[in-house]
Design brief:
The complex is a heterodimer of chains A (298) and B (283). Chain A has 298 residues and is mainly α. Chain A is 53% helix and 8% strand. Chain A is elongated, with a radius of gyration of 25 Å. Chain A starts with a helix and ends with a helix. The relative contact order of chain B is 0.15. Classes of the chains: A mainly alpha (298), B alpha/beta (283).
């Protein structure tokens, strides 16, 4: 058997979903007995059949990829519940096996997949999608690229009608229908595993479920950013969010501000002071990065 | 020996794997450690805390890169994005050599994230050696390949695992990261004599040695890296050192990771064997 054919055959078996009892399935999707499939290319030994040897890899694959999703999406697990989360994760991995050399990217397609498969979240679809977006943003903000931050002198004298400011690549802006940041922060609360008892974990789990049950729809605008190498969530006013989103999308400063205050409830007289306050805060956080010298004042 | 072209003519001693639970201890206590091995993929990112921590480690320590997903044995071509990011990291760490596994794990662009065993065929050896050469030419750094633990053997195999290893490294003209724990695990799973394996490895190509613990189940052994090194593995290590000479040695401990001191002290047990090798060379 040629190397490529053998690898395709083995990969199909290794990535095939396990049974509910977490064993290798008895039959391949085409109906062939897996005992026969395994025996075609794997030798038995004096202790294990071909099927059992292949099953070791089949189990290891699923344990590894499921553990990775669980680590990355504890909030989604809280929203869906343990059993539904696990079933959803298996279905996702089966539909969207990893196409990256790193497990870090395994769930890059989870949000779009969940949108196409609403049955997994049921009545909590919107809440679940918000949580996926937040937890994925958390991953991207954690190890995204940072550019040298903008300095005042970089934009001194610039014309707002032509000035385009750029957001740090690690920043993510989220328009959410639920205040999932509260739940995510609850999930992040540190646990001292050495002193925590089983009873403690049970209480914590109950608290998580209660926190999910309490979540009511409430639109929030969130920036997921990084400071001193730690990821933070910060709620924004709608106008702040619109300005930052417009700047991220390449609009000029003037256009971004005009868009933000169209139909704004903030009185016109208060807007200049508000803008100045926001920009001072954003600059202090280093959210803009230094543009090419030639384009900064264009 | 063992400073050779496969480890960049370095003479590293005993190192340990750089793992997150130890970051704080290392950065605050600055323990004396000859070198750290990093998992390349953990740092093939664009920014953030992992790279910041790596830079802090690089200010104080020597670092060698060890990969887990190059999949030299996969029939498909190397992933260009993977190679680009790996080269960026090589420039950052200035690793004197770079290791990854003699295995496969992806096909048709789909990744299993596992170290799957090779069929020991001449075709597989030729494809694998070609890929190692291609990666080395791109990265411009000595490459060494590590033997993996395995739980299955193929009907298609035309030679033993150690013959396959020799066929690949000769074809690629690359070095070997000899994992004596993996040899032990596979020997138990496939009923071969591990000492025959150690005795068959081309000593002049060994650039580094791995030691580790594993987990024993009723019908097989799993390479879990979550225990101390057992005596039979130390015996294989002693023989390897006897053949190869004083070689860069690294303890892998990846699960249920104990304190830094416990891991480091376990690794430092290798010095007993390395000292004997040095003495033999001197005599």
């Amino acid at each position: 058997m040629k190397l490529l054919n053998l690898q395709r055959k083995m990969a199909r078996a290794v990535m095939m979903p396990l049974t509910p009892a977490e064993n290798m399935r008895r039959y391949a999707p085409n109906g062939r007995p897996m005992r026969a499939v395994a025996a075609e290319f794997i030798k038995p030994n004096d202790r294990l059949t071909s099927f059992e040897r292949l099953e070791i890899y089949n189990k290891q694959y699923w344990y590894r990829v499921l553990a990775s999703i669980s680590d990355d999406f504890p909030g989604l697990c809280a929203v869906l519940g343990d059993q539904r989360f696990e079933a959803m994760a298996k279905a996702y991995i089966n539909d969207c096996p990893s196409r990256s050399f790193t497990l870090r990217n395994q769930c890059a397609r989870l949000e779009s997949w969940m949108q196409r498969h609403p049955k997994w979240a049921g009545t909590r679809q919107k809440l679940a999608l918000d949580m996926v977006r937040l937890e994925w943003a958390d991953i991207e903000a954690f190890d995204g690229k940072a550019e040298p931050p903008l300095r005042t002198e970089d934009v001194a004298g610039a014309n707002p009608a032509t000035l385009r400011l750029k957001l740090q690549p690690y920043i993510r802006l989220l328009d959410l229908r639920y205040p999932v940041d509260d739940l995510a922060l609850e999930m992040r609360a540190p646990v001292d595993s050495e002193v925590a008892s089983n009873a403690f974990y049970e209480r914590k789990k109950r608290k998580r479920v209660q926190a999910v049950a309490r979540l009511k729809p409430s639109r929030i605008y969130l920036i997921v950013h990084r400071m001193d190498y730690s990821v933070y969530f910060r709620r924004l006013e709608r106008e702040e969010f619109v300005i930052l989103t417009a700047l991220r999308d390449g609009k000029t400063l003037k256009r971004a501000v005009d868009t933000a205050f169209r139909n704004s409830s903030i009185p016109a007289a208060d807007q200049p002071a508000r803008i100045e306050k926001w920009f001072r805060g954003w600059a202090a956080m280093g959210w803009f990065f230094r543009p090419e010298r030639s384009s900064a004042k264009s | 020996m063992p400073a050779n072209r496969f480890n960049g003519f370095t003479e590293y001693g005993v190192g340990i794997g750089l793992r997150i639970p130890h970051f704080h201890h290392i950065l605050t206590r600055k323990p004396t450690v000859d070198w750290f091995e990093i998992i390349s993929e953990n740092f093939m990112i664009d920014g953030g805390r992992p790279l910041r921590t790596l830079d802090q480690i690089l200010e104080q320590y020597r670092v060698v890169q060890h990969g887990v997903s190059m999949y030299f044995g996969s029939a498909e071509r190397p992933n260009r994005e993977h190679l680009r990011r790996l080269k960026d990291l090589v420039k950052r760490t200035k690793t004197p050599w770079l290791s990854d596994h003699l295995c496969w794990g992806s096909v048709d662009g789909r990744y299993t994230h596992d170290l799957l065993p090779m069929p020991y065929t001449f075709e597989a050896a030729r494809i694998t050696a070609q890929k190692i050469r291609e990666v080395r030419d791109y990265l411009e750094i000595p490459l060494v390949v590590e033997n993996v633990s395995s739980y299955a053997e193929f009907h298609a195999s035309e030679m033993s695992e150690w013959e396959f290893l020799n066929e690949v490294v000769e074809g690629a003209d690359c070095g070997i990261l000899l994992d004596v724990n993996n040899i032990y695990v596979s020997s138990q799973n496939h009923s071969f004599n591990p000492m025959e394996y150690v005795n068959s490895v081309p000593a002049h190509r060994v650039a580094q040695i791995h030691i580790a613990g594993h987990s024993k189940y009723r019908k097989y052994i799993l390479d879990t890296h979550d225990h101390p090194v057992i005596d039979p593995v130390w015996t294989l290590y002693a023989r390897a050192i006897e053949r190869v000479g004083h070689t860069a040695t690294l303890l892998e401990w990846d699960d249920r990771i104990p304190s830094f001191d416990e891991v480091h002290n376990e690794a430092l047990k290798a010095n007993k064997y390395l000292a004997s090798a040095s003495l033999a060379t001197a005599v």
